[in-house]
Write a structure and sequence with these properties.
The protein has 208 residues and is an alpha/beta fold. The protein has 6 helices and 10 strands, in the order E-H-E-H-E-H-E-H-E-H-E-E-H-E-E-E. It has an 8-stranded mixed sheet with strand order 3-2-1-4-5-6-7-10, covered by helices on one side. A two-stranded antiparallel sheet has the order 8-9. Helix 1 runs parallel beside helix 6.
Length: 208
């Protein structure tokens, strides 16, 4: 049995998808947040999952917060740390501490559109597709080795909210699979390429 710690900042819909997947040989050891009132904490606690929070505003700088968050995470002896909507830029020390055991989901087809406002930027750029990327985390923002990607079309008349809803449905399918692939030892990193991941195009039912 391998321990997973999931970090969230809000309702944690991807965290919920991972929990609901009931991945064999995986135990959700804790769900943690940088916000005490994150809605996802209550959802996890209702299901008997240990929760905790540290308010990043209580710390002098990012490095100080990350040091305390690492101490909290390490109480649960994680084999994998999952960023499921954890809206913090992590320090190099944090990324190094969990190197190879820290994954994130990002709402774009990296390397396109790292950072924020991905769907708005895709529309402005005239993209015909959008999607999400699951990747190992490195100190360089949204640049770690790609585990899996999911693709959806951008339809005439779309706005950012339409795209976000369509992408989120794919995220909820793809993220639990990526976690399962890690737990089962299927992911092998070779330089900047990950072998053994699963990618997906949107189901036609999601395109209506």
């Amino acid at each position: 049995m391998k321990n997973i710690v999931i970090l969230i900042s809000g309702r944690g819909s991807n965290m919920q998808a991972i929990v609901n997947a009931q991945i064999p040989n995986a135990r959700i050891a804790a769900v943690l947040s940088n916000k005490h009132d994150a809605a996802g904490l209550a959802w996890a606690a209702e299901r008997g999952i240990t929760t905790g929070a540290l308010n990043h505003k209580d710390f002098a700088d990012r490095e100080a917060f990350d040091r305390e968050m690492m101490k909290l995470i390490d109480r649960y002896q994680p084999d994998l740390v999952v960023l499921a909507g954890f809206m913090r830029i992590l320090s190099p020390a944090f990324c190094a501490h969990y190197e190879g055991h820290l994954i994130n989901i990002h709402p774009s087809l990296l390397p396109a559109f790292p950072g924020l406002h991905t769907h708005e930027r895709a529309l402005e750029a005239g993209c015909r597709i959008a999607g999400c990327t699951i990747h190992f985390v490195t100190a360089e923002l949204d640049c770690g080795p790609i585990i899996a990607q999911g693709v959806v079309p951008i339809i005439e008349g779309d706005n950012a909210d339409n795209i976000a809803e369509r992408v989120l449905a794919v995220e909820h399918q793809l993220f639990p699979q990526a976690v399962a692939d890690f737990i089962n030892g299927k992911l092998k990193v070779d330089g900047h390429r990950v072998h053994g991941g699963t990618s997906a195009a949107a189901d036609t039912q999601l395109l209506a």
